[in-house]
Amino acid sequence: MTGKTQQRGRETRDRIVEAAIRILARAGAQAITHRAAAQEAGVSLALTTYHFASRDDILRQVYDRLYEGELQRFREIYRTARTEDHSETEIIDYVSTQVIREATEFREDSIAGFELLTEAFRRRELGEAALAVFDEKMQFWSKTMATMGSDDAELDAQLMLCTSLGSFLILMARGRLDSDLAATRRKIQYDVHSLFSAFPPVEGKG
To answer: Kind and range of the H or E element at 57?
Structure first.
């Protein structure tokens, strides 16, 4: 197989995966079939079945694409927080940026990701990618909570995840007006401040 042929094959696979993500966001996991993905991608049914032997193969590739993308965006936002001591205000900025980006700029991917998460609840073999996202976020927040003075970093990490997820779901339901974005930031600010206010003072801070 030549380099050009391999490149065309990768491009075709990418088109089919992106098409499947659009179908997921629009109609749910049950709507994904080889025929639907081929039609959405603008490729032949034969090409779709060539690159993806089964419907599950398509779903697994979509899982990988969506959750790799989510993790990459998470790392991009929080990359400096991995090695530096950050303030409450900076943590609020990080969480607000993450929540608002996922609900606006990456809204379609977010809807598709939740559709797949629901599918994973029924079929555990599809849930590994989602667990990897959760585990990495938990590791980051556990370390951050310990640095901020938490007596129970793992529990408080779970609370931070709940804060971001709850704010995200509310914003997804409300819409994307400026007033909705401002309300989301206020909620995050309140939740994070309430959590950090319960921490004992950290030596050297204050």
So the answer is: helix 55-78
Q: How many residues does the chain have?
A: 206
Q: What is the DSSP letter of 104?
A: T
For residue 12, the SS3 value is helix
- Nearest CA-CA partner of 152 in 164, 161, 141: 141
Question: Per-10-residue mean pLDDT for the chain, 206 residues long?
Answer: 78 95 94 96 96 93 90 84 69 92 93 86 72 87 88 94 93 81 92 89 56
Full DSSP string of 108-131: HHHHHHHHHHHHHHH-GGG-HHHH
Task: Name 19's Cβ contacts closer than 8 Å, sequence gap at least 6.
Answer: 37, 38, 40, 41, 42
Verdict on whether the full-model pTM lies above 0.90: no
**What is the spatial distance between Cα 90 and Cα 189, in angstroms, rounded to a whole number?**
10
